[in-house]
Amino acid sequence: MQEVTATSRHYVDRLFDPDPQNVLQGVIDMKNAVIGNNKQKANLIVLGAVPRLLYLLQQSSSSLELRTECAVVLGSLAMGTENNIKSLVDCHIIPALLQGLLCSDLIFIEACLRCLRTVFISPVTPVQLLYTDPTVIPHLMSLLSRSRHTKEYITQIFAHCCKVAHTTLLIMFFLAYENTQVSMTLVNVLVDGEQLSQVFVRMMQRDKPIEMQLTAAKCLTYMCRAGAIRTDDNCIILKTLPCLVRMCSKERLLEERVEGAETLAYLMEPDVELQRIASFTDHLVSMLADYFKYPSSVSAITDIKRVTSHTRTHISLLRQAAFKLYASLGSNDEDIRKKPILDSGVIELLCSLTQSDSPALRVNGIWALMNMAFQADQKVKVEIVRALGTEQLFRLLSDPDTNVLMKTLGLLRNLLSTRPHIDQIMSSHGKQIMQAVTLILEGEHSIEVKEQTLCILANIADGNTAKELIMTNDDMLQKIKYYMGHSNVKLQLAATFCISNLIWNEEDGSQERQDKLKDMGFVDILHKLTQASDPNLCDRAKTAMQQYLA
User: pLDDT tens digits, residue range 435-462?
Assistant: First the structure.
């Protein structure tokens, strides 16, 4: 034990003076006395200065100046020996300082953070103390931009935690999810002089534990999606993406495959080049097909050793992860749709899932097909219609589950895009499609369902020959007229767009169509809609009226 001097006792005694001004002056004198004096620091700790300083720091009745000076002294005490740090931690300095960060005063916050930084960079401080309260990390994130000092101290705390315990990093990067400011701050953090992104690259090496590889890949994925790392950066293309593809292989545990597939889907969702690279990496598409081979009941699983503990929920998550990845792979690039997806038999697999008793599987199957049909060439669309079959398509259009119905309408809308495709599909299946549209528009469905259906009708009206299926159907024209006068603007917009396509001047037979629709009263309705309060509806009606004036 350090020698206890009379001077040290005097400093501690002044902390208990009834006069607040004397207490403040005593703390200031203590601050000056401990600078560079480890013996004095140890003496004050032994004499019980720390609990009293923490008490004064936490009292709302203490002046901000006093609370700030207490934080400064505690920071000086922390700069002593490792034994000093242990004593401070044992006195619960960390929760007291974290609580101090809730104060609005910036100078006090900076003093608390400076002390916390000193405590946390010590090897004897358990870093998990930073994560005891789940609100702490979000609050630290919110303080990053308060000043140059708050940014410096917080990033130093994070850097040390990164170095000591890699799994705690995931907490921070969940917070960095779609947050550019936080991600830009973290990507510049240095750990022993090395950028954090490079630390993660090393964590993704094949000889590292799978949990570590996945954690690092997730961190880099979030930073990339938030804009802190470019999608063409080598750490993404050559390290993160291949690591996530490896996680999708059948050698991995079920949970690892789910996490890998979902993270990979999120990483490449907006970037065509990443989708293209992924589609040709390690037979990814064929690996995903295995995701659907797990049976729907645990009792039917033969690989008991690996999956006995997994429930129906885990298997469902596996399928959903595959759906997400298929949707990301096929969302933007026609070559990918044709080469990983079309040739792999995936379309037949997805079509078979639309016949499942599970609404969730039906929704996901249709959703994936809908994405594949988006801006696809005719070969892909024909293959989807062939594999799904018209009977199943129309069963789905009468599905009692609204989500299934909406996704099926989305699929049909994507199939009926570009005129040659519209005309080709309507020449083969026009009668059934018009019947389905009629049933939905007459039925008790939500505004969203009817809006999507009217949009399909507008696509049909854009075909060269397909539009005649509407023009020769007076009952359908009356329905369009009804929805042009509906109280919901979304339905009015969709119906007016349909009429605009029917009367467009530059197309053969436009005059005859205009005359017929004028005789049915559509011009009067369009004229009224040019006075609509909604600017979009007003503009659309004016555009349609111009076709009559041209």
Answer: 999 999 999 999 999 999 999 999 999 9
Helix (H) or strand (E) holding 247: helix 241-247
Which residues have a Cβ under 8 Å from the Cβ of 417 and sit 6 or more positions away? 375, 459
Query: Across the chain, what does the average pLDDT equal?
Result: 86
Residue 34 lies in a domain: yes
pLDDT tens profile 51-92: 999 999 999 999 999 999 999 999 999 998 899 999 999 999
- Cβ neighbours for 125, distance < 8 A, ≥ 6 positions apart: 85, 89, 94, 119
The pair of three-digit structure tokens given for residue 176, joined into one six-digit string = 């960095």
How far apart, in Å, are the Cα atoms of 264 and each of 280, 288, 337, 354, 538?
A: 14, 12, 17, 24, 44
What type of residue sits at position 456? Answer: I
**231 three-class SS:** coil
- Helices 284-291 and 254-268, axial angle in degrees (round to 10): 130
The residue range of the domain holding 2 is: 1-125
CA-nearest of 511, 514, 501 to 466 is 501
Taking only the tens place, the pLDDT of each residue in 237-250 is 999 999 999 998 88
Confidence bin at 299 (pLDDT 50/70/90)? very low
Q: Is residue 157 a contact partner of residue 101, using CB atoms and an 8 Å limit?
A: no
Would you state the structure tokens that stand for residue 194, as one six-digit string? 């090395």
Measuring CA to CA, how many Å separate 88 from each of 54, 82, 94, 118, 195?
10, 10, 8, 11, 31
3-state secondary structure of 284: helix
| Residue 379 belongs to some domain of the structure | no
The answer to whether the Cα torsion of 176, 177, 183, 187 is positive or negative is positive
> How many structural domains are present in the chain?
1
Beta-ladder partners of 191:
194
Task: Decide: 115 and 97 in contact? Cβ < 8 Å.
Answer: yes
The answer to whether 203 and 237 have CB atoms below 8 angstroms apart is no
CATH of the domain at 69: 1.25.10.10
